[in-house]
Amino acid sequence: MMHAKTRLRAASSFGAIALALVLAGGAQAVTRPAVPDAQASVSTAEGLFPDAPYGVDPMVTGPVSASFKTQQAEAGCAKADWPDIPAACYPQ
User: Do 54 and 90 lie in a common domain?
Assistant: First the structure.
């Protein structure tokens, strides 16, 4: 009879520990900070070209007008660092 009580205590203790772990995991999930809003972290390029799954290269490789070159120079495109590239650096 003594062995049955010992087994029952061990099983009860194991169950209590398991329940405590489950509740602690749930509490941690509730208190975790929320993931930042995806719209808040969208770069200029991602906002201008949402259909480009692999990103957009601001480097223009084809012929451009003199006015576009002036626009890029005024916007400081040559000194811009990714991902903070002004919208004026991208062709329309």
Answer: yes
Query: Which residue from 61, 49, 53 is spatially nearest to 85, judged by alpha carbons?
Result: 49
Cβ atoms 76, 86 nearer than 8 A: yes
Check if the beta carbon of residue 45 is closer than 8 Å to that of residue 83: yes
Task: State yes or no: pLDDT of 4 exceeds 80.
Answer: no
Identify whether the C-beta of residue 84 lies closer than 8 Å to the C-beta of residue 75. Answer: no
Cβ neighbours, 10 Å, residue 77: 18
Does the pLDDT value for residue 71 go beyond 90?
A: yes
Tokens of 62: 């084809």
Contacts of 73 by beta carbon, 8 Å cutoff, 6+ apart = none
**What is the span of the domain harbouring residue 28?**
1-34
Shared-domain flag, residues 50 and 77? yes
pTM for the structure as a whole: 0.44
